[in-house]
Amino acid sequence: MALTLYVDNARWRAHQQSVIQQFPGIVPVCKGNGYGFGHERLAEEVTRWGADILAVGTTYEAARMKDYFGGDLLVLTPFRLGEEPVPLPDRAIRSVSSVEGVRGLVGARVVIEVMSSMKRHGISEEDLPKLHAAIEDVRLEGFAIHLPLDRGDGTTGVDEITAWMERLRGAHLPLHTMFVSHLKSDELLELQQRFPQTRFRARIGTRLWLGDHDATQYRGAVLDVTPVSKGDRFGYRQQKAAGDGYLVVVAGGTSHGVGLEAPKALHGMMPRAKGVARAGLATMNRNLSPFVWAGKQRWFAEPPHMQVSILFVPNDAPAPQVGDELVAHLRHTTTQFDRILDH
């Protein structure tokens, strides 16, 4: 009995191909938990369609992925002076976001990140003149810019990248390759037409692996079903059942990422109102689970355990049976499955 990730391989791979065709020279990204699929699985996919490069999050991920993928490995986390050294092959490329970082990577292959409106990390415009001497001691693979998802000032990603291209060109720095993110395919094409001497390579993860929501589905197996009456005590904290129904034990707990949720930016009054309502229910120990039974998301009977969750299903719904599987609406990037099955 397990929390299982089901993958419609034909549909999943058809979506991959559609993204690859829209973004020539794509740099597939595999970081964190491998977008819910695992590093090895994604390495197999990019090898299958002949990618020459794979982006990973950290040096530790690169050290693991070098055994699964034979092409170049682009480490997205910028190099920092004094960081713990991790043995990596020559095909590893380090991102750098400071002049000092470039000087600390003599002989290495590097991609220099410029500061975008994200204001996360990157070389500033003021530091560009200092790069001339620094890049003589490294193998420069190109520059990179990481764009925000939303923009509130009326500009576009093309505008921001164009401005940086002009700055780099004005500083007489090599512009053979620019790694970009969070662009639409038509925006990438527009940039390529504006700057035909530069190769633009889009780093894409979420859109590539998770863009077709119907290609994948999590399901948790029912392990036990126990009838309860209103007022019966149950669970670690011996709470009282709110009504007649069933306690349903389903595979999937905190070790799988069930019950964990990343903060979300709320836009508009309705999402904000729903957020306030959920917070109010949570103060009364009522939390909606990600598991669906008989067409409805069911409430946690109590907080999820390490490997299972206990749900309350009222008696106006049919009782699940041991061995049934409940669809679970889980976030891929925070979920760890027990098994993955192709269908």
Low-confidence parts: 272-285
Question: Which strand order spans the largest sheet, edge to edge or round the barrel?
Answer: 2-9-8-7-6-5-4-3
Helix content: 25-40%
Order of helices and strands: EHEHEHEEHEHEHEHEHEEEEHEEEEE
Question: What portion of residues belong to β-strands?
Answer: 25-35%
State the end-to-end CA separation: 18 Å
C-alpha-based Rg, rounded: 24 Å
Mean pLDDT equals 92
Gross morphology = elongated
Q: How many DSSP-defined strands?
A: 18
Structural class based on helices, strands and sheet pairing: alpha/beta
- How many H/I helical runs? 9
**What profile does the largest beta sheet have?**
8 strands, parallel
Write a short abstract of this structure.
With 343 residues, this protein is α/β, with parallel strands linked by helices. The chain contains nine helices and 18 strands.
Describe the secondary-structure layout:
Elements (H helix, E strand, L loop, with lengths): L2 E5 L1 H14 L4 E2 L10 H10 L4 E4 L2 H7 L6 E4 L16 E5 L2 H5 L5 E5 L14 H7 L4 E7 L11 H14 L6 E4 L4 H10 L4 E6 L1 H5 L5 E13 L4 E2 L4 E2 L4 E7 L17 H14 L5 E6 L2 E5 L7 E7 L10 E4 L10 E4 L1
Parallel strand pairs: 1-18, 2-9, 3-4, 4-5, 5-6, 6-7, 7-8, 8-9
Antiparallel strand pairs: 1-10, 10-13, 10-17, 11-12, 13-16, 14-15, 14-17, 15-16
